[in-house]
Amino acid sequence: AQQIETIQAGGTAFAAGPIPQLNPEWLTAANDNSAEWQLACALGSSAAFWKHKEPQDPVRHHWLPLLESKRFWKYHTTDADQRLYHDVRCVVNRRDALADAAAVVERRLIEASQHGSRALRLVAAPGFEAQWKDLSNLLNGSVDLDRTLRLAQALMALNWKQAEKPASPPSNSTTNLPEPAWLALRCCCLAEKLPDGRTIPCDPAMVRRLRAGDAGEALAIALRRLRASGIRPPLQAGNADSNIARLWAAALIFPITPEMAEQAINHLHPAHEGATRA
Description:
Shape: globular
Low-confidence stretches: 69-76, 274-278
Structural class: mainly alpha
Radius of gyration: 19 Å
Number of strands: 2
Order of helices and strands: HHHEEHHHHHHHHH
Largest sheet: 2 strands, antiparallel
């Protein structure tokens, strides 16, 4: 399915239309329990939000130029020559996985700002959110991001409304938390309010700096945001090379839960945990 859509995105054989919705049984049949698979499920199921178990504004729109209003999506074409429309929402070029993932993150932030929001509007299907263990493996270089995005593209065609939650949701032990620098960045790119009702506004400049390879300035922006929200991380500054900065940006594409965000904040600022429970 992913290979067919990649060919179609290049302008060939698109008249047949997009891949039809896949049966949720594929989630069981294709599951190899790898980090790539788990992260692909998180990304492949993600949307701006969920309403009545239905994904609203799914992430698939950044891979393919699809009609918004059709239950079974169709490609945009012109009347004259039946070519795909150039859709500014389609930011994935399939040549560089790091660049593709980071481009989707930045595009989502741009679109959110157009609606007066300062959130990273990517929410996974309930029960399919990314897990700390898999994110840590991604950030330490143990995950094939290219394979992950290919799997995610195929899973975007799944009928997620009918997908059942995993029988045994994976544990999100804090022993698997990624490094504090990336957690600080992640806490400034949330899709939803924290469990205590607070929001941490995202500054798109942070993601732009990461994409440009400037981890130091991106982290400085994140730390200022956190301190303005009453969170005092133990680190005062930080830096990383340009490749790590791009990886940090790419890893933001995988949705987490508000509870996971709270775990990260409590790890960055232990005193905050006691304050929220008081």
